[in-house]
Amino acid sequence: MEIFFQGLLYTLGSILLVILIILSLKLINTVDKTNEILNDVHDKVKATEGLFNAINMTSNAISSIGDRIMDKLFSLIGRISKNKRKKNEEDEEYE
After folding, report:
1. Which pLDDT score, from 0 to 100, does residue 89 have?
2. Exposure string (b/e) for 19-58, b if CB count within 10 Å is 16 or more?
3. CA 55 centroid distance within chain
4. pTM tops 0.90, yes or no
5. CA-to-CA distance for 18 and 26, rounded, in angstroms?
């Protein structure tokens, strides 16, 4: 009976070893395919990186121009309101 159990354990161990080898080979194939996909995605991202940099630079330039226009506009409004306050103060002094 002992020999039977020993033979059964060796057989089951051998089957388990073969199954683990097959699963590890499939895992290696899956990792290789995933690596190919990631390399392809990486290459495509690098190809579009220049486009995104150009868009970013254009956006920054437009934002800078907008900021300058708004700064000039606010300083003009500030000068106009300052002149009105001066006129009001001068009118109050004469009254």
Report:
1. 65
2. eeeeeeeeeeeeeeeeeeeeeeeeeeeeeeeeeeeeeeee
3. 15
4. no
5. 12
10, amino acid identity: Y
The pair of structure tokens assigned to 72 is: 């000039």
Paired tokens of 85: 């306050």
DSSP string across 10-59: HHHHHHHHHHHHHHHHHHHHHHHHHHHHHHHHHHHHHHHHHHHHHHHHHH
The count of other CB atoms within 10 Å of the CB of residue 11 is 10
How confident is the prediction along the chain (95 residues), in pLDDT tens digits per residue? 889 889 999 999 999 999 999 999 999 999 999 999 999 999 999 989 988 999 999 999 999 999 999 999 988 888 887 777 766 666 666 55
